[in-house]
Write a structure and sequence with these properties.
alpha+beta; Alpha-Beta Plaits; four-stranded antiparallel β-sheet; globular
C-alpha cells in the first residue's frame, strides 16, 4: 500500500467543503490514516512550498495557505498518489475535468480547494512535515476485501 499527503486549503474549509472532499476519497475506497486541522505558520508554509520559492506566485501561495485553517490528511491505498492527483483534477480548475474535485468545486487557480503530493518523494516529504510517525494509524478496514481483490 502507498501513502500520500492531501491538504484541504483555507478556501475549502471556509466554503464548508471539507466533508464533501473527504467523502470523494472514502467513496473511492481509500483509507485515511492521518487527519488534523491546523493553521500553518509562514515558516511551515514556506517549507511546504519550498520548490516554488523564487517563482512569481510564491508570495500569494504562502499568503493564501496561511490565511485560515487547513485540513491535513494522509491517505493510503493502492496507487493512491496517482489516483488522488487524477481525482483532484488540473491545478487550473477551468481546465479540470468535470467530476474532479477542482472541476466540481473550484473556479480560480488561486482558490483550487485541495493540494496533493505529486510523487513518492514529495509524498514522503510532506507526510513527514505535517505528521509525526505516531500520528499515523495503521489499521484494517472491514471493507478492504471488497475494495481490493488480492487481500
Amino acid at each position: 500500500m502507498e501513502r500520500t499527503f492531501v491538504m484541504l486549503k483555507p478556501d475549502c474549509v471556509q466554503r464548508n467543503l471539507v466533508g464533501r472532499v473527504i467523502t470523494c476519497f472514502e467513496e473511492k475506497g481509500y483509507k485515511i490514516v492521518g487527519l488534523k486541522m491546523l493553521r500553518l505558520s509562514r515558516e511551515m508554509a514556506e517549507e511546504h512550498y519550498a520548490e516554488h520559492r523564487g517563482k512569481p506566485f510564491f508570495e500569494s501561495l504562502v499568503a493564501h495557505i496561511t490565511s485560515g485553517p487547513v485540513v491535513a490528511m494522509v491517505i493510503e491505498g493502492k496507487g493512491v498518489i496517482a489516483a488522488v492527483r487524477q481525482m483532484m483534477g488540473s491545478t487550473n480548475p477551468l481546465e479540470a475535468a468535470p467530476g474532479t474535485i477542482r472541476g466540481r468545486f473550484a473556479v480560480d487557480v488561486g482558490r483550487n480547494v485541495v493540494h496533493g503530493s505529486d510523487g513518492p518523494a514529495s509524498a514522503a516529504r510532506e507526510v513527514a512535515l505535517f505528521f509525526r510517525p505516531d500520528e499515523l494509524i495503521s489499521y484494517r478496514r472491514e471493507d478492504e476485501r471488497w475494495v481490493y481483490e488480492d487481500l
